[in-house]
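Researcher: Re-running this chain for the archive, since the previous output was lost when a drive failed. Same request as before.
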Amino acid sequence: MSNTPPKRIAQFDGQYRFLSNFSDHPVTYAGLTFKNSEAAFHAMKCPSRAAEFTELSPSQAKQLGRKVKLRLDWETVKDAIMHDIVKAKFSQDDELRVCLLSTGDAYLEEGNTWGDRYWGTVDGVGKNMLGKILMQVRDELFKG
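Model: Regenerated structure tokens:
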């Protein structure tokens, strides 16, 4: 088996689960420590309730994130918030940083079956914003 990174990582599962916001890796963001980056992201939809998300699983955080009152600027700031959370996740954990950097220049795509064409793709169709953010963070970490 070769140590050459793949040219494309099409799903964030198996050995690439660490790329997913649903992976169990704590992240500190906005002064709080969350069990995972999914919880940190959904917490920022309503910052006054952010502490409620710190102990939630990714699924619980996603569920609560659908129920909170969205901050007025959410659609404008959500990509920048995702970038900052992803960067925090991979900057705060040396092992995770090495894993991300080991993907080399592979195209990262959050292929999914749950219909998310904004953060990922379904059957190769979608904006893949999470994949793009991961690649941007990888480049930023590589450059130091």
